[in-house]
Each structure stands twice: as C-alpha cells, then as structure tokens.
Amino acid sequence: MTDRVHTSPNHLGIAAVERDTGLSKDTLRVWERRYGFPAPLRDASGERTYPDEQVEKLRLLRRLIDQGERPGRIVALPMPELRSLLDESAGRQPRAPARPHPVEPFVEMLRAHDVVGLRRQLRHSRERLGLARFVTEVVAPLNTLVGEGWMRGQLQVFQEHLYTESLQVVLRDAIAGIPASGDAARPRVLLTTLPAEPHGLGLLMAEALLALEGAHCVSLGVGTPLWDIVLAARAQRSDIVALSFSGYMNPTQTVDSLKELRAKLPEQAALWAGGAAPALHRRPLPGVRPIASIGEIHAELLAWRHAARP
C-alpha cells in the first residue's frame, strides 16, 4: 500500500511526471500494478506523487525503451544496472559522422539561459545555410543533442522547453516567408500528431521542407483525435497525411493507432509516419510509409510525385 504524504517540492504529480519523462499516465499505472514500480506516495487529497529518485529512474527507463529494451526486463533493475545498460547501448551504436556544423554552442547558450542569444544564433544559422540545410544539418542533430542532455539530467525540463519554444519561433518565421504555393499545388499534405504525442518540432521541420518543395501544407498542430484527422483529411482533400512521432507514445498504441487511421482514411491518401520511434521501424505496417529521418523527405516526395503522374 502506498504511503500518504503532504505535497512536497521534491515530489511530482502524475501529470508532471508524464511531461517530464515522456511516459503516459496509463503506462505509469500499468507498471505500478504489474512490476511494483514506480511506487508513488499519496498527497493529502489521495493523488499519486512521485519522489525525485523515482522520476530519475523513469527517465532512464524511457531512454532504454526507446533504444529497444523491453519494460519487463528492465523496470525492476536498480539504477546502477540501468546506467550500465545505457552506457553499453551507447557503446554499441555506430559513431555519428562528424557534424558539418557544430551545434554544441547552441546547447551552451541554453545552459547559460541565454534565450536571446540562442534565437539570434539560430536565425543567423538559418540565414547563412538556407532553410533546408538548416533543418537537416543543424536542427536535426541539435534535437538529438538536447534530447540526450535532458534524458541524462544534464539539462532541466525548463531548458528543454526554452529550446523548443525558441526553435518554433525561428521555424515558424521561416515557413511564413516561403511563397504560398496555392490550393492547387500537389501534394496536399496534412500534418499533425496523435493525441498522446505532444511534441511538435518534427511537424515544423517537415512542414518547412515540404513547403520549400512546393507542397501545399496544412498543419493541425499536435494532439489531434484520430477521427478529426480523418475528417480534416477529407475536408482538405489531402494527398498525404503526415504524422510525427518522438517515441513518447506507447509502442502498442502507436501501431494500433496507425492501423486504425489507415483503415479510416480515404484509400488514395498516403499515410506517412515520421520519427525515430522504434515501433515505426520494427515491422512494416501495410499502407504506412515510415520515414526514419527528416533527410528522407525529399526522396519520398519525388517518389510520390512520380507515382502520381497520369
């Protein structure tokens, strides 16, 4: 039985833990029941609260699951073993190629809380490289670096949020400056995420590259209910429905939602699922085109246009 405690700055409620770790409330409750962890306390109102040490462990678990580990194998492991697993996993991954443009200075500005400087340098990089190269050569590796810093506790949640907001400002400003392609432009692309996926940077990155290629893009933002995606695709006469996944969603939920969406969408509408979430790449889903990296969008768009030729 969980203990009853008063609310403390060192304890987070379940909604805050969901935002902090990327693990859904349902997942937290299932693990609690199935594995005995997390083991939340209770506040004066009887609501679950999670001590800092449990939140730290949940972050590590999320990172390992993103890399393909099974919850049943690792949830009960102590922190030292989880850290060793994470180090081993990092050692097994191929060494990343040298980045054409160093992105570490952006992270240093983030650590120094220099939001004005961060936005100024992001804009300068975008103007110097052009939007397409900025997205693929700066934003993509920078997202990875910031995500790794957050998961390892080297960046605080508020710093990750400051980064996200800063990059959204820079990307939206750039997208607004792309000449409109007109309603008749093809393909017509609807961009969004499913309700359990709150991260929208992938959408903005994809929208930027698609708009540069002359696609007509309509973004619904994040967290759109599945049936509303279907209604919007019909209303917008969408040729492609593009969803972004960050690994935040439960893998089973990801696969089931994509299957249901594919069955409900018009047959002629292509369904793209972008992101590095492992569930997208473990096995093919009929009628779903997985896009592992933002750099694949150009080739995928060429393939779509070739197939769509009369």
CATH class of the largest domain: Alpha Beta
CATH architecture of the largest domain: 3-Layer(aba) Sandwich
The coarse silhouette is globular
Fill in the CATH topology of the largest domain: Rossmann fold
Q: Which sheet architecture does the biggest sheet show?
A: 5 strands, parallel
Helix/strand-derived class?
A: alpha/beta
Please mark out the parts with pLDDT under 50 across 5 or more consecutive residues, or reply none.
1-8, 93-97
Name the beta content range.
Answer: 5-15%
Q: Approximately how much helix is present in the residues?
A: 40-55%
Number of helices: 13
- The topology string of helices and strands comes to EHHEEHHHHHHHEHEHEHEEH
CATH homologous superfamily of the largest domain?
A: Cobalamin-binding domain
What would the average pLDDT be, to the nearest integer? 85
Radius of gyration: 21 Å
